[in-house]
Amino acid sequence: MTNRRLVDRRTAILLTTAAALAPAARGLADQPQGQNARILTAPVPTVPGPHRTIAVGNIDVMGPAANASATNVGGPIAAMLTTALSESGDFIVLERDAVAQMVTEMDMAKSGVSTGTAAPQPGHILPAQYLVVGSITDYTATGAGSGNGGGLSIGGSTALTLGGSSGNVGIDLRIVDTRTGEVVKAFKVHHKLTSMNLGLSSAVSGIPVATNSFFNTPLGDATRRALNDAVVQIAAALAAVPWRGQVVQVENGLVYVNAGGDAGVAVGDKMSVQRIGESFTDPATGALLSEHMVELGTVTITGVEPKLASGTYVATIPGDPVRGDFLIFER
Fold this sequence. Notes:
By secondary structure, the protein is α+β, with helices and mostly antiparallel strands. The protein has helices spanning 2-21, 74-88, 99-110, 218-239; strands spanning 52-61, 91-94, 130-142, 151-154, 158-177, 183-204, 207-213, 244-251, 254-257, 270-281, 288-304, 309-315, 326-330.
């Protein structure tokens, strides 16, 4: 009984020590772990109007980050950024990494290998209004866990191990308007974190009691923070760009819009109806330099379906809109 009380007292001392050290250690895991953990944990600015369609393209690795241990990190980072954008709820996020596989499915349906009403059809994949691409310029981790900093033990069976490690993540990103190829915004996110790792282990009569790690790896935490910063900057940049849709049909005074409730269109929303009056292109490159838009009138949304909305039209100049005219969301 005396030995058991002594072990319990040693364990209590170490638990007290761990509690005292924890507030001073950086990188404490404050987010749920495992399959339910979210990537996006920071507040994201609201993007007004209907949701923009967005996709994450290629994110490569360059510079000091292009080493053997980080060569394949671009794909996972792109996948995590896609997930974080989806978690924000501000966008319609489109899959681009598996497009080749989707085209294969369409080819199978077209050739009759797969049939039925559920078979995918060409021309139904949604276009992305914006594409996010970039490069990882830094992705390093130093220190490998609790063994680096030594440990404290009482009696040998119960030990508190202390160690340090750090993670450094830098990503250059660009938001591209797919209609014009224009870079809407280019920016860099960078985070470097260092943490102390605490580990507690104890045994009573040779039976393990507990083994705990209180901190995330700094590289993982730095990656999450960098992706959070990226989504915040993407949302802020696109909030400054008016949403643009198009007229599907005009019938009996109603204008039908190519976006609905799934895209965040709501009853009462107002949209300016515009038509391209004149386009200016570069004679050397063919690049679009400017478009002069003519405002035709205003649509007030009165009905919303999942993929379609409709509204009453008030003309500014004589004449009705036609299919393909542009709709600009008014804040």
